Fold this sequence. Notes:
Layout: E1 2-6, H1 9-24, E2 30-33, H2 40-53, E3 61-64, E4 66-68, H3 79-86, E5 98-99, H4 108-121, E6 127-130, E7 152-155, H5 158-164, E8 177-180, H6 183-187, E9 191-196, H7 202-210, E10 228-233, H8 243-251
Parallel strand pairs: 1-10, 2-3, 2-6, 3-5, 6-9, 9-10
Antiparallel strand pairs: 4-8, 7-8
Helix pairs in contact: 1-2
The structure holds 2-amino-2-deoxy-6-O-phosphono-alpha-D-glucopyranose.
Amino acid sequence: MEVVICPSxxxxxxxxxxxxxxxxxxxxxxxxxxxxxxxxxxxxxLIRRHREEGLSFAHASAFLLDEYVGLPATHPESYAAVIRRxxxxxxxxxxxxxxxxxxxxDDLAAECARYDAAIDAVGGxxxxxxxxxxxxxxxxxxxxxxxSSRTRPKxxxxxxxxxxxxxxxxxxxxxxxxxxxxxxTIRSAHHLVLVATGEAKAEAVAAAVEGPLSARCPASILxxxxxxxxxxxxxxxxRLDYADYYRYTxxxxxxxxxx
Length: 259
Ligand code: GLP
């Protein structure tokens, strides 16, 4: 795992966009997308590169991490709608190749199995963007999620519902259940890229990066992945014991070694 401490969110956005651009320039790119506020700066940079530098998403397929149960794709706070608004409506990706689990399916278990099969059918996700919840969740894998889990329905913690209440009129409107790629699904992506900014994420980042590999902190699965990169700002890095080492590594990063 590589931990990269950046001076600003904009720097994180540029690094993440570099990683995505390299994948997007391959023949049949499969990109993993996340919602939440953390990825927005990277999406803004990708949209800018599309508009100003001709970066194309025309051959890409995209898979979202998760979706609320009960919200149709037309609901403004469904993750399907959020990702259209924040990224895919602004680039040249084929909307039919932007996939998300359907939280309104009659048979949610079957829908989750279909979603995992759709990811497998394209050969897996090449690069998966991840935010992190204050309780260490990735996607919507709350603490004590199985480290091998596949896409499935989950119950949100009250903390996550409170954290996400800002997108709704009240906490009562935040759905109680979700469909999420499992930790095993996420782990099968070729490259995991986690982004976190701000003091509120410092504890979760420290647990994920330097704590034990444990279902208690689902983001700790990054430690078990052969290619994981964590981009954080100074505030999100403020509880990392090895911060000096990560800064030293970045300052001495050889030109031949990308992220
Ligand atoms: C939600 C999403 C996660 C995201 C998390 C943090 O719970 N399901 O994928 O990482 O929020 O969001 P933010 O980046 O807004 O803090």
